[in-house]
Design brief:
Blueprint: E1 74-75, E2 85-86, E3 97-99, E4 106-108, H1 111-115, E5 119-120, E6 126-130, E7 133-139, H2 150-161, H3 167-172, H4 175-189, H5 193-199, E8 213-219, E9 224-229
Parallel strand pairs: 6-9
Antiparallel strand pairs: 1-5, 2-3, 3-4, 6-7, 8-9
Helix pairs in contact: 4-5
């Protein structure tokens, strides 16, 4: 297996006390001049409004056209569940990798890989949730002139899940959930004990061992992307 590739944005390191919904927006110089990708699609997902159109001008009925069907959205293949991505959200370093063969040989994603557009057409904000975590995340501000790249999304998800939880988060858990989250925290501490114990429970511990990123699924009902981990 190749060594881990450290993906370092030019912006300041993420503060562990930043507001829960503060977007991470890497500098445009991070991904210089990439070309639009044939895969991918837009975000935030378009909100179609029902137009006021009287298409039967002499009738009292059916004065509204039905809303158009949602346009298909194309995510970058590695955000869409392509199985050759290995991305451990509990790892000590941000190190997404490509699986090369059936034996599990892996190599770090390159800067061109990470620079590819996250969606097609380009997106400027993505709203992501996970069923096991109470913290929705917003990647991008929606106002930046620079579209989101694959690296933006993966790095934001990794850093967001690495944040330490607050005391009030722990209190909100039921007794059984505390036992399970605490058990996975102790297992993670066994690898890097001193450093991990000092920082306490992190959001990634809420995944209870399901720490491999497996892509995003569109939740049409809620208008968000649901993160899948195994």
């Amino acid at each position: 297996m190749s060594g881990a590739f450290v993906f370092t944005p030019t912006s300041s390191p993420l503060s562990f006390s930043f507001p829960a919904y503060s977007p991470f927006i890497p500098s445009p110089s991070l991904f210089p001049g990439y070309n639009p990708s044939p895969y991918a699609y837009p975000s935030p997902f378009p909100q179609y409004q029902q137009p006021f159109v009287n298409y039967y001008p002499h009738s009292l009925y059916n004065i509204y056209t039905p809303p158009p069907p949602p346009r298909p959205h194309q995510l970058h293949p590695w955000l869409d569940g392509r199985p050759d991505l290995w991305f451990d959200l509990s790892a000590a370093l941000f190190a997404p990798m490509r699986i090369l063969d059936s034996s599990g040989t892996r190599t770090p994603l390159t800067l061109p890989d990470l620079s590819a557009p996250a969606t097609h057409p380009p997106s400027y904000a993505l709203h992501i949730t996970h069923d096991s975590c109470p913290w929705p995340m917003t990647v991008g501000s929606g106002t930046s002139a620079t579209p989101l790249a694959l690296g933006d999304v993966l790095l934001w998800v990794y850093r967001y899940m690495q944040l330490s939880i607050r005391q009030e988060d722990w209190v909100m858990l039921g007794d059984g959930e505390r036992r399970e989250v605490g058990r996975w925290w102790r297992r993670r501490c066994a690898r890097r004990e001193e450093e991990e114990r000092v920082r306490g429970v992190r959001r990634v511990d809420y995944l209870q061992g399901r720490v491999l990123f497996r892509g995003l699924v569109v939740d049409w009902g809620r208008g968000v992307l649901r993160m899948v981990t195994v």
